[in-house]
Amino acid sequence: MAVAYERIADELRQSIRAGELKPGDQLPAEAKLAERFKRSVPTVREALRALRDEGLIEKQHGRGNFVRRQRTSALRTNLRHQWEKDRAREPVEERAQTGATEHDTGLEVNDLVFHASYREIKADKDLAEAFGLPEGAALLERTYRTRYAAESAPFNLVTSYFVHDLVAKNPDLLDETKEPWPGGSQSQLYTVGIELDRIEERVTARPPTPEEAEELELPPGTSVLVLRKTSIDVNDRVVDVSDVILPGDRTEMLFTTPLERW
Length: 262
Description:
Chorismate lyase; two-stranded antiparallel sheet; 30% helix
Protein backbone atom coordinates (compact mmCIF):
# COMPACT_ATOMS: atom_id res chain seq x y z
CA MET A 1 0.00 0.00 0.00
CA ALA A 2 1.36 3.40 -0.97
CA VAL A 3 2.54 5.62 1.86
CA ALA A 4 1.26 9.18 2.17
CA TYR A 5 4.09 10.92 0.31
CA GLU A 6 3.81 8.47 -2.59
CA ARG A 7 0.11 9.28 -3.03
CA ILE A 8 0.92 13.00 -3.12
CA ALA A 9 3.72 12.43 -5.62
CA ASP A 10 1.47 10.28 -7.79
CA GLU A 11 -1.26 12.93 -7.99
CA LEU A 12 1.24 15.65 -8.88
CA ARG A 13 2.92 13.33 -11.36
CA GLN A 14 -0.38 12.66 -13.12
CA SER A 15 -1.09 16.40 -13.31
CA ILE A 16 2.28 16.97 -14.97
CA ARG A 17 1.89 14.13 -17.46
CA ALA A 18 -1.68 15.19 -18.30
CA GLY A 19 -0.47 18.71 -19.04
CA GLU A 20 -2.45 20.30 -16.22
CA LEU A 21 0.90 21.45 -14.86
CA LYS A 22 2.99 22.58 -17.81
CA PRO A 23 6.78 22.93 -18.18
CA GLY A 24 7.88 26.07 -16.36
CA ASP A 25 4.79 26.21 -14.13
CA GLN A 26 5.44 26.84 -10.46
CA LEU A 27 4.01 24.38 -7.97
CA PRO A 28 2.12 25.71 -4.95
CA ALA A 29 4.20 26.40 -1.85
CA GLU A 30 4.87 23.46 0.45
CA ALA A 31 2.48 24.82 3.09
CA LYS A 32 -0.29 25.15 0.49
CA LEU A 33 0.29 21.58 -0.70
CA ALA A 34 0.22 20.34 2.88
CA GLU A 35 -3.11 22.07 3.37
CA ARG A 36 -4.47 20.68 0.10
CA PHE A 37 -3.47 17.09 0.83
CA LYS A 38 -4.13 17.34 4.57
CA ARG A 39 -0.63 16.12 5.34
CA SER A 40 2.41 17.56 7.10
CA VAL A 41 4.98 19.73 5.37
CA PRO A 42 7.72 17.06 5.84
CA THR A 43 5.48 14.54 4.02
CA VAL A 44 4.99 17.01 1.16
CA ARG A 45 8.76 17.54 0.99
CA GLU A 46 9.27 13.78 0.58
CA ALA A 47 6.82 13.78 -2.33
CA LEU A 48 8.56 16.72 -3.97
CA ARG A 49 11.95 15.08 -3.48
CA ALA A 50 10.68 11.97 -5.28
CA LEU A 51 9.51 14.08 -8.23
CA ARG A 52 12.85 15.89 -8.38
CA ASP A 53 14.67 12.55 -8.39
CA GLU A 54 12.55 11.52 -11.38
CA GLY A 55 13.47 14.73 -13.19
CA LEU A 56 9.86 15.94 -13.34
CA ILE A 57 10.37 19.07 -11.23
CA GLU A 58 13.29 21.23 -10.19
CA LYS A 59 13.85 23.42 -7.16
CA GLN A 60 15.02 26.95 -7.87
CA HIS A 61 16.76 28.52 -4.90
CA GLY A 62 14.66 31.18 -3.23
CA ARG A 63 11.77 30.73 -5.68
CA GLY A 64 10.24 27.30 -5.16
CA ASN A 65 9.52 24.16 -7.21
CA PHE A 66 8.83 24.27 -10.95
CA VAL A 67 7.83 21.71 -13.54
CA ARG A 68 11.04 20.85 -15.36
CA ARG A 69 11.20 21.71 -19.04
CA GLN A 70 11.81 18.70 -21.27
CA ARG A 71 15.31 18.94 -22.68
CA THR A 72 16.16 18.16 -26.27
CA SER A 73 17.05 14.48 -26.51
CA ALA A 74 19.78 12.90 -28.61
CA LEU A 75 19.61 9.57 -30.46
CA ARG A 76 23.13 8.25 -30.98
CA THR A 77 23.36 5.40 -33.44
CA ASN A 78 26.41 3.49 -34.62
CA LEU A 79 25.38 4.22 -38.22
CA ARG A 80 26.50 7.83 -37.67
CA HIS A 81 30.13 6.77 -38.30
CA GLN A 82 29.52 5.65 -41.88
CA TRP A 83 27.47 8.82 -42.39
CA GLU A 84 30.48 10.85 -41.25
CA LYS A 85 32.87 8.89 -43.46
CA ASP A 86 30.65 9.37 -46.52
CA ARG A 87 30.84 13.15 -45.95
CA ALA A 88 34.54 13.41 -45.11
CA ARG A 89 35.65 14.18 -48.69
CA GLU A 90 32.69 16.36 -49.66
CA PRO A 91 33.30 20.06 -50.50
CA VAL A 92 33.44 22.27 -47.42
CA GLU A 93 30.18 23.98 -48.41
CA GLU A 94 28.42 20.61 -48.28
CA ARG A 95 30.03 19.56 -44.98
CA ALA A 96 29.23 22.90 -43.33
CA GLN A 97 25.48 22.45 -43.74
CA THR A 98 25.13 19.98 -40.87
CA GLY A 99 27.12 17.96 -38.34
CA ALA A 100 26.97 15.03 -35.94
CA THR A 101 25.01 16.85 -33.22
CA GLU A 102 22.43 17.99 -35.74
CA HIS A 103 22.28 14.41 -37.01
CA ASP A 104 21.60 13.08 -33.50
CA THR A 105 19.11 15.74 -32.38
CA GLY A 106 17.30 16.96 -35.50
CA LEU A 107 18.40 20.54 -34.81
CA GLU A 108 19.90 22.94 -37.36
CA VAL A 109 23.41 24.43 -37.37
CA ASN A 110 22.13 27.83 -36.27
CA ASP A 111 20.33 26.25 -33.29
CA LEU A 112 23.62 25.28 -31.64
CA VAL A 113 26.26 26.94 -29.49
CA PHE A 114 29.67 25.29 -29.85
CA HIS A 115 32.93 25.59 -27.92
CA ALA A 116 36.27 23.85 -28.43
CA SER A 117 39.61 24.11 -26.68
CA TYR A 118 42.93 22.45 -27.57
CA ARG A 119 46.12 21.74 -25.64
CA GLU A 120 49.16 19.49 -26.01
CA ILE A 121 49.54 16.85 -23.29
CA LYS A 122 51.69 13.81 -22.54
CA ALA A 123 50.01 10.43 -22.71
CA ASP A 124 49.33 8.85 -19.32
CA LYS A 125 49.29 5.07 -18.88
CA ASP A 126 45.65 4.69 -19.98
CA LEU A 127 46.01 6.73 -23.16
CA ALA A 128 49.42 5.26 -23.98
CA GLU A 129 47.92 1.77 -23.86
CA ALA A 130 44.92 2.87 -25.93
CA PHE A 131 47.16 4.27 -28.68
CA GLY A 132 49.90 1.65 -28.39
CA LEU A 133 52.44 4.39 -27.64
CA PRO A 134 54.99 4.87 -24.85
CA GLU A 135 53.91 6.87 -21.83
CA GLY A 136 54.72 10.53 -22.28
CA ALA A 137 54.08 10.54 -26.03
CA ALA A 138 52.75 13.88 -27.28
CA LEU A 139 48.97 14.02 -27.80
CA LEU A 140 46.63 16.79 -28.86
CA GLU A 141 43.77 16.97 -26.36
CA ARG A 142 40.57 18.51 -27.69
CA THR A 143 37.61 19.37 -25.46
CA TYR A 144 34.19 19.99 -26.98
CA ARG A 145 30.89 21.31 -25.64
CA THR A 146 27.80 21.72 -27.81
CA ARG A 147 24.41 22.86 -26.54
CA TYR A 148 21.05 23.90 -27.91
CA ALA A 149 20.91 27.71 -27.84
CA ALA A 150 17.62 27.60 -25.90
CA GLU A 151 19.17 25.46 -23.14
CA SER A 152 22.09 25.97 -20.77
CA ALA A 153 23.54 22.44 -20.50
CA PRO A 154 25.59 20.71 -23.23
CA PHE A 155 24.42 17.50 -24.85
CA ASN A 156 27.55 15.71 -23.62
CA LEU A 157 31.10 16.21 -22.44
CA VAL A 158 33.67 15.23 -25.07
CA THR A 159 37.44 14.91 -24.75
CA SER A 160 39.20 13.67 -27.87
CA TYR A 161 42.87 12.84 -28.45
CA PHE A 162 44.98 12.82 -31.62
CA VAL A 163 48.60 11.72 -31.88
CA HIS A 164 50.29 15.11 -32.10
CA ASP A 165 52.96 14.28 -34.68
CA LEU A 166 50.40 12.49 -36.86
CA VAL A 167 48.16 15.53 -37.32
CA ALA A 168 50.85 18.23 -37.12
CA LYS A 169 51.39 17.80 -40.87
CA ASN A 170 48.38 20.10 -41.22
CA PRO A 171 48.86 23.11 -38.88
CA ASP A 172 45.13 23.85 -39.09
CA LEU A 173 44.50 20.69 -37.06
CA LEU A 174 46.41 22.21 -34.13
CA ASP A 175 44.35 25.40 -34.17
CA GLU A 176 41.18 25.46 -32.06
CA THR A 177 39.96 28.59 -33.86
CA LYS A 178 39.33 26.41 -36.94
CA GLU A 179 36.51 24.71 -35.02
CA PRO A 180 33.82 23.68 -35.61
CA TRP A 181 35.47 21.75 -38.42
CA PRO A 182 32.95 20.92 -41.15
CA GLY A 183 32.75 17.15 -41.35
CA GLY A 184 34.25 16.49 -37.93
CA SER A 185 37.22 14.32 -37.02
CA GLN A 186 37.07 12.01 -40.03
CA SER A 187 37.33 14.99 -42.34
CA GLN A 188 40.20 16.40 -40.25
CA LEU A 189 42.08 13.11 -40.49
CA TYR A 190 41.45 12.96 -44.24
CA THR A 191 43.48 16.18 -44.65
CA VAL A 192 46.58 14.29 -43.48
CA GLY A 193 45.86 11.22 -45.60
CA ILE A 194 44.16 9.07 -42.96
CA GLU A 195 41.17 6.87 -43.76
CA LEU A 196 39.35 5.07 -40.97
CA ASP A 197 38.78 1.33 -41.21
CA ARG A 198 36.66 0.84 -38.10
CA ILE A 199 35.48 2.43 -34.88
CA GLU A 200 35.19 0.58 -31.59
CA GLU A 201 32.87 1.92 -28.88
CA ARG A 202 32.77 0.67 -25.31
CA VAL A 203 29.88 1.91 -23.15
CA THR A 204 29.56 1.69 -19.38
CA ALA A 205 27.34 3.48 -16.87
CA ARG A 206 28.08 5.07 -13.49
CA PRO A 207 26.96 7.87 -11.20
CA PRO A 208 28.25 11.26 -12.34
CA THR A 209 30.97 13.14 -10.54
CA PRO A 210 29.73 16.31 -8.82
CA GLU A 211 31.37 18.37 -11.60
CA GLU A 212 29.67 16.33 -14.35
CA ALA A 213 26.27 16.53 -12.62
CA GLU A 214 26.59 20.30 -12.35
CA GLU A 215 27.73 20.91 -15.92
CA LEU A 216 25.16 18.54 -17.44
CA GLU A 217 22.44 19.81 -15.05
CA LEU A 218 21.42 16.29 -14.10
CA PRO A 219 18.46 15.56 -11.82
CA PRO A 220 19.49 13.83 -8.57
CA GLY A 221 20.05 10.11 -9.06
CA THR A 222 20.62 10.33 -12.82
CA SER A 223 23.44 8.18 -14.16
CA VAL A 224 25.78 8.99 -17.02
CA LEU A 225 26.84 6.78 -19.91
CA VAL A 226 30.60 6.67 -20.38
CA LEU A 227 31.65 6.05 -23.98
CA ARG A 228 35.24 5.28 -25.01
CA LYS A 229 35.43 5.64 -28.79
CA THR A 230 38.54 4.30 -30.52
CA SER A 231 39.12 5.09 -34.21
CA ILE A 232 41.44 2.76 -36.16
CA ASP A 233 42.75 3.51 -39.63
CA VAL A 234 43.25 1.24 -42.64
CA ASN A 235 46.85 0.59 -41.49
CA ASP A 236 45.52 -0.76 -38.17
CA ARG A 237 46.75 2.27 -36.20
CA VAL A 238 44.72 3.88 -33.44
CA VAL A 239 44.45 7.49 -34.62
CA ASP A 240 41.76 8.97 -32.37
CA VAL A 241 40.57 8.17 -28.84
CA SER A 242 37.53 10.00 -27.51
CA ASP A 243 35.93 9.92 -24.07
CA VAL A 244 32.30 11.02 -24.11
CA ILE A 245 30.15 11.54 -21.01
CA LEU A 246 26.47 11.28 -21.96
CA PRO A 247 23.60 12.31 -19.64
CA GLY A 248 21.31 9.37 -18.94
CA ASP A 249 18.16 11.50 -18.91
CA ARG A 250 18.40 12.70 -22.51
CA THR A 251 20.50 10.16 -24.42
CA GLU A 252 19.28 7.10 -26.31
CA MET A 253 21.82 4.67 -27.77
CA LEU A 254 20.76 2.64 -30.82
CA PHE A 255 22.95 -0.11 -32.26
CA THR A 256 22.08 -1.62 -35.63
CA THR A 257 24.03 -4.69 -36.76
CA PRO A 258 23.69 -5.71 -40.44
CA LEU A 259 23.74 -9.51 -40.76
CA GLU A 260 25.16 -11.43 -43.70
CA ARG A 261 22.61 -13.55 -45.54
CA TRP A 262 22.91 -17.30 -45.75
